Amino acid sequence: MAKPSRLPQRLSLPPGHAGAPCLVAFSGGADSTALLLLAAESGLPDLRAVHVHHGLQDAADAWAAHCEAACAQWGVPITVCRVQVAADDPAGPEAAARKARYAAFRELLPAGGLLLTGHHRGDQAETVLLRLLRGSGVEGLAAIRALSAFGTGWLWRPLLDQPGDALRALVESRGLSWIEDPHNQAPRYARSWLRTALLPRLRERWPEAEAQLAATASRCAETAELLHELAAELLPALRREDGGLSIAGLLALSVARRRLVLRHWLAELDLPPPYDETLRHLGREVLTVRADAEPLLRWPGGEFRRYRDGLYAAPPLAPLPADYAVDWDGDSDLVLPAGCGLLRAAAPLRARVRLPRGGERLRLRGAAHHRSLRALAQQQGLPPWIRERLAIIEVDGELLSIAGRWNADPTRTAGVLQSWSTDAPPGLPLSWRQI
Q1: Which pLDDT value is given to residue 91?
Q2: Torsion-angle region of residue 234: left (phi > 0), alpha (psi -120 to 50) or beta?
Q3: Residues 139, 283: one domain?
Q4: 314, 334, 359 — which closes off a domain?
């Protein structure tokens, strides 16, 4: 049995987080029991525990009661949070349960607070192996970070460099009981199979395998940080005012730097990382096609679009209804179809609002000739996917305004303006985002 003295005698808050309220994720297992015990004995500020009741096991109610009893013994307030786990999650039940669990943590964590989890060195080793088998790069092999942003607070894993048997030894030395989740030993789950089948064999041949895998994660984390710094230095010169990146600037970079910048940019946009094959297609089918092409390249959870020298990325745009048309009196905001924002008016009016169907033409006030919507949009550098989302405002069957930006008779459209919020389609100029 490992000696409990290998663990820190007390937990010290990370630098810069003095006084932050602490929330311990308490499953009742040996790891989280050791963590909560150390947290309580360390006198961490505003310490609370949360137990997530997934309802996936017959013993789930008994587990919640066990955690409540333990917290009562240590004088730590606890919240038992019941969650619904999506049964049809394509990533499987293990991933679905994790999503539900961390969603509950985000909701309960106070702003600026620390969520403590009992991850240890064995968890780090398992994560590195999983990421290797999935073909991850340096960022993925950095695996679990000791401290990372989480919701409005931080996720802190204070025992990440400690061996798991030391946590269990501490709990045993105090005569405490803990919960054994049978899922942790079920070979049908990838992580459980690594834990029970592969890692023990590796330790037989390489006793320090777990420590070395964790060390690899630490080195990869350092490298990933350097790459983040490089990407952050390269990005400003590539940014366009409409949220895209300069294609000419991207093509001037080496392939390695270009992919680094793109991955960093997509992470900023909170988009899922694209496959390597997607980035290869991006170079051939988007970045190097003729300037007047309008390519679209999708990957799960996102899509790339191009207009002129701009590359844009966003979640997949919602399809537009084919026959959208409504009457509007201007007294209140008119919410348009998804991805089209809303209309506001400075005064009441009686208008018919629809989306473009093709061939719209408008003679601006004081102009001698009509101009097409396509020409007007091109003049202002609006991509086609923005153009097709512009509101057409008709009064008495006559087209009088397009999005409140181009008007035949402003006095009759009474200061109508189409506005977008932060979910605006990519490529929308900042000057058009009124909300």
Answers
A1: 62
A2: alpha
A3: no
A4: 314
Is 348 found in the same domain as 306?
no
Which residues lie across from 399 on neighbouring strands? 394
Cβ 121 vs Cβ 162: under 8 Å: yes
Q: Of the residues 249, 280, 314, which one is the last residue of a structural domain?
A: 314
| CA dihedral over 429, 430, 431, 435, signed as positive or negative | positive
pLDDT in tens, 320-374: 998 999 999 999 999 999 999 999 998 888 999 999 998 999 999 888 899 999 9
Q: What pLDDT is attached to residue 2? A: 38
**Pair type for strands 325-328 and 351-354:** antiparallel
Contacts of 322 (CB under 8 A, 6+ apart): none
Secondary structure element (H or E) that encloses residue 311, with its range = strand 310-314
**HSE value, Cβ hemisphere, 13 Å, CA-based, for 234:** 24
Judge if 277 and 361 occupy the same domain: no
181: in domain:
yes
Residues 422 and 276 in one domain: no
Residue 412 CB neighbour total at 10 angstroms: 17
Q: How many CA atoms lie within 13 A of 87 on its CB side?
A: 2
Which structural domain range is residue 126 located in? 4-219
Taking only the tens place, the pLDDT of each residue in 171-189 is 999 999 999 877 666 677 7
The pLDDT score that the predictor gives to residue 49 is 97
CATH number, position 245: 1.20.59.20
